[in-house]
Amino acid sequence: MNIPKLSIIIPVFNEERTVGIVTERILATKFPGWEIEVIAVNDGSADNTASVLNSFSSKIKVINLLKNVGKGSAVKAGIEAATGDFAIIQDADLECKPEEIPLLLEALKKFPRDAKIAVMGSRELHGRKDHESLFFHRLGSLSITKLINVLYGASLTDTLMCYKLFPRATFSYFQAGGFDSEMIFLTRLLAEGYRIVEVPVSYTPRSTKEGKKISYKHGIKIIFKIVTFWLKSHFVRK
Q1: pLDDT tens digits, one per residue of 87-104
Q2: Between the CA of residue 215 and those of 121, 157, 180, 208, 212, what are the distances in Å?
Q3: What is the per-residue pLDDT across 44-57, written as a single tens digit (0 to 9) for each?
Q4: Is the Cβ–Cβ distance between 11 and 43 less than 8 Å?
Q5: Residue 89 near residue 170, CB atoms below 8 Å
Q6: Contact 45, 15 (CB under 8 A)
Q7: What angle do helix axes 216-237 and 135-152 make, rounded to 10 degrees?
Q8: If you write DSSP's letter for every residue of 25-71 in order, what string do you get?
């Protein structure tokens, strides 16, 4: 049997302080039974991100976008360059631990290789709730998760977590955009009958001053996009 391949996609915007550390930790992580490729997409960063990424160009694929087009568009560029059987999104901000990616891969072993399965990391299933200190971010995350559960009859706990592991058959579902792209992708998976398996993962939040980019304005846009997508898909299907 051929060894499956995983494409780890890192969308990056102005993360010169952390993206090198994230990349080093990914490269140092063991992925038993998997071939790995790392694709970092520099989303038009204005700092020294490009230089940091280029220093890893012999070990990873580096895509430098000429201007900032949004996280979803950066992820889309990475997906288009990916050659893996599966792909996973890894943020460049050190809020998530690259060493925990194998936990998501482990969850796939319970299902046939061609099963309609995607795996997500969940902060809410983890024992520690470090993210409770960021009350409004967590409230927004829980609200969006509840909305998706109601609309799609799901029972997810943490839809905004970056760790989403998905098969090649779904690569075309991911559309360009901003932070909303991941949520629309997730709802597309649910609409297409994919089972979403959640795995507990740890999380270390950072503040806006430390570089956190998502805000309540993004949350409002995400909710609008989710409802709009549901209405369109619901009435078209009917």
Answers
A1: 999 999 998 999 999 999
A2: 21, 20, 12, 9, 8
A3: 999 999 999 999 99
A4: yes
A5: no
A6: yes
A7: 0
A8: HHHHS--TT-EEEEEEEEES-SSSHHHHHHTTTTTSEEEEESS---H
